[in-house]
Amino acid sequence: MLVVGFPVGAFQANCYLLAREAGTECVLVDPGLDAAPEVERALSEHDLTLSAVLLTHGHVDHIACAATVADDHGVAVHIRSEDRHLLTDPAAGLSPELARGVGGLRLAEPAEVVELDTGSLTVAGLPVRVEHTPGHTPGSVVFLLRTPEGGQVALTGDTLFAGSVGRTDMPGGDAAALRTSLTASLLTLDDETVVLPGHGGSTTIGRERAANPFLTGVRA
Residue ranges of the domains in the chain? Predict the structure, then answer.
């Protein structure tokens, strides 16, 4: 499986393109602030055709370019209903300090929005399992994909990072819900599962189970 990832914007949020291989359809995950030019370069470089945009949650550093890219390519944006309002009102999901930083920014809703449910879907020829993982935001999700090589990839957004977990002190955040999400949806995964988080470098479930200080004492 082809995975192309790069950080974008002032918050250096990770944006990912995934495809079976170069020259095929692909799915785009979390096109955040200033992502559009980098996305277009990656699509051209790898001869990819965009099939869908998937969002792990609704914070502006992960969704700012979703409508622009999706509408330019005529594809749908997929997001949980709980976070859909953040597509057009990003300040609603931020602390007062961060909300002042976006200065009343309003975004256009994508032409086509699909509300995600827990379960399975197929995009760009890739089978994707959607796990609802509230805590960082009410509509946070993790996307799980089995690779043709037999491994598993988890795109965790801001639910789980290398050495940390998502903050819960912004509107809609819930520390107890996050702990439940980690226990029920992530710590049940195989240790070899590769974690592609919303910020920072990749890791594995096994590494985080053993060394992440925020998971100490948390058991599936």
Answer: 2-215
H or E stretch covering 7 = strand 2-8
Q: Which residue has the higher pLDDT, 204 or 95?
A: 204
* CB neighbour list of residue 69: distance below 8 Å, 6 or more residues apart: 28, 31, 35, 36, 39, 50, 53
What are the φ/ψ torsions at residue 16 (nearest 5 degrees)? -130, 140
What is the CATH class of 2-215? alpha beta
Torsion (CA) 155, 13, 187, 86 in degrees, nearest 10: -80
Helix (H, G, I), strand (E, B) or coil at 192: coil
* pTM exceeds 0.85 for this model: yes
Task: Give 183's DSSP letter.
Answer: I
Query: What's the number of CA atoms in the CB half-sphere (13 Å) around residue 185?
Result: 26
Q: Which has the closest alpha carbon to 3: 154, 130, 113, 141?
A: 154
